[in-house]
């Protein structure tokens, strides 16, 4: 499975970004798919993911600000990030569990700064 992440960049506090993760397989066949993030010196942490085709799970720190969605026809998962804060600055990774194996995308940098 290949995961191609895109959409990161530099944004001011309070701004918005949308990340995209394009999968090389039908995302209906993926057990879980979503987003993690990592900052230097810290462990990678869950941001949001689909636990089934339509059930979602979010980190407490992003609830009410981030929304995960999917376009099954495009095999793509999105992360809409609103009201961004400086503490959201991180490298964001797309993640998928498929046929008993965990896959990671290449990461996309999100920087929230004025």
Q: Any overview of this molecule?
A:
With 114 residues, the protein is an all-beta fold. 0% of the residues lie in helices and 53% in strands. A hairpin with a 2-residue loop joins β9 and β10 (101-104). It is globular. The N and C termini lie far apart (37 Å).
Low-confidence runs (pLDDT<50, min 5 residues)? none
Number of helices: 0
Structural class: mainly beta
Termini separation comes to 37 Å
Globally, the shape reads globular
pLDDT averaged over residues? 94
Order of helices and strands: EEEEEEEEEEE
In short, what is this structure?
The chain has strands spanning 3-6, 9-11, 17-23, 32-38, 45-50, 56-58, 66-71, 76-81, 90-98, 101-104, 108-112. The protein is mostly beta strands and 114 residues long.
Architecture blueprint of SSEs:
Blueprint lengths: L2 E4 L2 E3 L5 E7 L8 E7 L6 E6 L5 E3 L7 E6 L4 E6 L8 E9 L2 E4 L3 E5 L2
Parallel strand pairs: 2-11
Antiparallel strand pairs: 1-3, 3-8, 4-5, 4-9, 5-6, 7-8, 9-10, 9-11
């Amino acid at each position: 499975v290949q995961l191609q992440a895109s959409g990161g960049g530099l944004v001011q506090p309070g701004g918005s970004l949308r990340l995209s993760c394009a999968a090389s397989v039908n995302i209906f066949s993926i057990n879980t798919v979503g987003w993690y993030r990592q900052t230097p010196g810290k462990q990678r942490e869950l941001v949001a993911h689909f636990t089934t085709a339509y059930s979602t799970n979010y980190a407490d720190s992003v609830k009410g600000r981030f929304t995960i969605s999917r376009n099954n026809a495009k095999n793509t998962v999105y992360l809409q990030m609103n009201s961004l804060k400086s503490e959201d600055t991180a490298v964001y990774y797309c993640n998928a569990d498929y046929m008993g194996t965990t896959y990671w995308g290449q990461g996309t940098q999100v920087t929230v700064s004025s």
